[in-house]
Amino acid sequence: MDLLLIQSQEHDKLPLAELKAVIEVEEIETDLEVVCPGLVLLKSLDDSKFDDYYKLLVKRLGYTHEVHQVISTVDYSDIEDEVCSIDWSNYIDENFAVRVKRFNTEVDTVATERRVGHLILTNTEGISVNLKEPKSFIRVVAHQNTVYLCYGKYRLDKKYFELMKPHKRPFFHPGCMSPKLARCMVNLARVKEGDFVLDPFCGTGGILIEAGLIGAKVIGSDIDWRMKRGAATNLDYAGVTNYRTCVVDVREMKMYDEVDAVVTDPPYGISTTTCGEGTDGIFKEFLSSIEHSMKKDALLVMASPDSLDIDSLLDEVGFKLLERYSIKMHKSLTRIISVIAKIH
To answer: Residue 231: which of 263, 197, 207, 265 has the closest Cα?
Structure first.
């Protein structure tokens, strides 16, 4: 069985990197095919585990918009015969809607939706069309001359990342990371349900929220007591219960238990919350101290400004770079996301 993923195209590498990381950590056996930018096939998934894999991807992914079960793949010229040959009662409960998504094709979206919907309706008993709140969703994806007829059994909560933007949470502070990027960073850290995840610069708790929502046990620290309290407020608001927050200078951090992953966005520049230390000093002190809090195979996923020479710092403290991604934030800042491992 196959899944078709429609990914965000707001970044050229992160959506696919995030997907590969989740496939790796969840041990999903599949053949991954990039059909085109923004469209990915996961092929030959184990039938007995298909539903579990489907739910996991829907629960975890940040830079993916939709995940669908592939019913059939057909040339556009044969779409009508193929639609008529499918037993849609296996996929539609009471009512449905058909929506078409195009990639590199001039297929008429509205005409195709109407034609496919009409054929399904006339060939299936006891169903109706509901375009506003359908119980069943049929996604037709057209790429060049190929059409994927898909069933949206589980849907990503598209509203979540909008509703959980930093300024909409109870405690807000400027400069917070978006929940979508925070979720992606957690996934890049190969976090599993039940893992201990540490953010030693937790701020308002955005990274902790995303780790907690995929089932991790989270620990957040900050040098500013206001952030410690605010992060706890936001974690409660998001429904995360398995957490601990504390006021700690990262240079003095001593964890009782080593953690499975560190995911963090250290402060950039001179700030009252960093005791007036500049960017280079903050990162050097952080990298020197955090290794002792990490398990042998733990990963560190960290954001940093492009002005910082991370490579030289990593060489000094015994880490190695595995992956790197750059994100243009605005005219004066490009954010670098690094996936880092300990050198054993």
So the answer is: 207
d(Cα 110, Cα 119) in Å, to the nearest integer? 14
Residue 97: φ, ψ to 5°: -140, 150
**DSSP conformation class of 260:** E
Give me the residues paired with residue 133 across strands. Answer: none
DSSP of 148-217? EEEE-SS---TTHHHHTSGGGSSS--TTPPPHHHHHHHHHHTT--TT-EEEETT-TTSHHHHHHHHTT-E
Question: pLDDT by residue for the chain (344 residues), tens digit each?
Answer: 999 999 999 999 999 999 999 999 999 999 999 999 999 999 999 999 999 999 999 999 999 999 999 999 999 999 999 999 999 999 999 999 999 999 999 999 999 999 999 999 999 999 999 999 999 999 999 999 999 999 999 999 989 999 999 999 999 999 899 999 999 999 999 999 999 999 999 999 999 999 999 999 999 999 999 999 999 999 999 999 999 999 988 877 776 679 999 999 998 754 434 444 566 778 888 888 898 889 999 999 999 999 888 888 888 888 999 999 999 887 778 999 999 999 87
Backbone phi and psi for residue 53, each to the nearest 5 degrees, phi listed first:
-60, -45
In the chain the domains, ranked by start, together with CATH numbers, are 3-151 (3.30.2130.30), 163-342 (3.40.50.150)
State the DSSP code for 270.
S
